[in-house]
Amino acid sequence: MTRFLTRLLGRLPIGWLQLVHNRARFAAALAGVAFANVLVFVQIAIMGSMATATIQPYRFFDADIMISAADANAIAEGSHVPRQWLFQSLAHPQVASGTPLFVGNVSLQRHGRTISLTTFAIDPAAAEFYAPDIARKSAMLRLPDSGIIDINTRGLDRAEAALIRPQSPDIVEVRGRSLSLQDTFAGGGGFGADGFLIVSDQTFQHLVQQRSSTAPDHILLHVTGGADAERVAADLRQILPDDTLRIRTYAEAQREDVSYQQTKRPTGIIFGFGVVIGILVGLVIVYQVLSTDVADHLREYATFKAMGYRHRFLLGIVLEEAVILATLGAVPGTLIALGLVTGMRAATNLPLAITPAIVAMVFVGTLVACALSGTLATRRLASADPAELF
Q: What residues form the membrane-spanning segments (predicted)?
């Protein structure tokens, strides 16, 4: 390592030699940087999974515009929308089709465990509003009291779920009513429920009996070919007499939902603070290590200054230590975080992931944090007078 750094820097790697001179402190510093990396990685993975889980149910459908109530900050939240706005929207010449979307929560018992399912329902005849994978199975939803279930539902045995087919449906009981599960689709557990269930609007009325067919949760619209969805949405905001309606493009609704989950909901704010705390922990640890190192070697640094070396040279030594700590500490931190996130994903079925982009982002952030700590730690060197030290 010393030879490599000597060739890389073109001089004796003084920073490296100072770090390994006290191996116990060096190991503690690496452990601190690795711990901060793990903390940041895990929090970012959870934040990312929240965004993925939020967008996931939107991917079950295909629409251009979504009409929601004023308080509908998420797809599974908010008041209901009068169905009459669907018919008025269809009067717009650039609205091709529309369908009401119903959202509710049901639960079923499975091997003594209660499984909660966020349930979505539209008219199976409006198959163009399903995502392609679900649209191929939508004909089965025309059968009374039938549905298709998310194969990634927490608590649902994968082997049993793989056997659910139209030839071998699984009969379950939901709210005292038999429901025939005809097939599966790929969803994924979220933060609000164990999985997802898709049924027809008629079956939905049977399962969630207090809901009225005239008051869906959202209205989905398709615009005609070539029409600008944003322009049509703006027109509908002028045409529909209810000013409280949220008439957005489907993509805009997804972005606003993710933003709401990450910046307004307590869980999103807590995870965001976790990332900040991880960065602060790393800054404090590295700063403490480097400032102690500077204090211990203040006479040596003063000697360099007396020999005519400028402050920039001394700063380079400390930054060399900071970069070494950031690089070597990031390796175990990344490996430990990958193991933890993999275990958390298996245990919770949440879409947790650490992508190469996240690894690169955290590594660059670690380098910047360590460099900042190193710069702060050299403040005493700038004012150190060799004459006073000796």
A: 26-46, 269-290, 322-341, 353-376
